[in-house]
Write the structure tokens for this entry.
Amino acid sequence: MGGVRADLLSDTLTRPTDGMRSAMAAAPVGDDVFGEDPTVNALEERVASLLGHEAGLFTPSGSMANQLGVRLHVRPGEELVADSLAHIVRAELGAAAILSGITSRTWVSTRGRFRADDAASLMTTGVGPYQVCTSLVVVENTHNFGGGTVQPIEQIRRARTLTREHGVAMHLDGARLWNAAAATGTALTAYGREFDTVSVCLSKGLGAPVGSVLVGSRAAMQESRVWRKRFGGGMRQAGILAAAGLWALDHHVERLVDDHARARRAADAMAEAAPGSVDPAAVETNIVVVDVAVAGWSGPDFVATALHRGVRTYAVGPGSVRLVWHLDVDDAATDHAVDVLTDLLRSGPAS
Ligand SMILES: Cc1ncc(COP(=O)(O)O)c(C=O)c1O
């Protein structure tokens, strides 16, 4: 976008680097619907092993990977339970209801932080033909609309114990699980092993142009392969895309801590400029949610004014704005964003 010097709209905006493009061009390919694309197969195996699962399935999007997870665990007429701000209930446009014929119920959290008791309080099983049966708990880590919140591993483990007792499955929406692992040092396998299925995105902070991977047991992934085709996600020479994912895993994981440090630096500056606008302690990864109402702004007005000065942001509520750091926002862009955003917070809207 012309004139934008710091694009903090989303970490989905990144463009493939030259190295990534070369890897894509050189990728050996085959027909993946027949399971014959060596690069897709390599990516699926690699991600499954990173997360401690038997098998993986490459999908065009995180939404499709999530919906395949839902389809696996929840039968029509049953329900999933999740955080009220979870992407799977808030931003997948009713896909679970439309594609799988299921209902969803939600708990309310602070900044998306997961607590096993919140999930347990909704779980309904063994009540015969009277109430909807809960079949799946969905956890999002990190939590996007919560502001990049990292989920506590002990709460996840406790939920695993409780769900097992009730025969309820667990799916992890790990679109940004890479960020959670980078922020905490917790191994990906430690998160992965607590879930029946995990979806991870290559097209967010990792900088690939397209692609997510669902992991689970071999049998589950075989079933999901059938559903992926039904959902219209069977791709052919998709190795060109999978190569970008492999490149991202090799080159863009370790640098995630740079995004976190830049987000933290900006959060500190904004908290100083307008106390109460940001809680720096709440900034755990690459996402910062700013309460611009504290400085008298509406979210949309703040976004429009910041854009006019070269900083693109996103209004997540009437008085709050989200900023996301990623591969294409360097130190200079962060400096510019800090200058503009702190200035707007200090000055408030023109009356
Ligand atoms: C937490 C989370 N899950 C899933 C998705 C869906 O990914 P996609 O846009 O590839 O469908 C997103 C997208 O931003 C997300 O933030």
About this structure: The two ends are 29 Å apart (CA to CA).
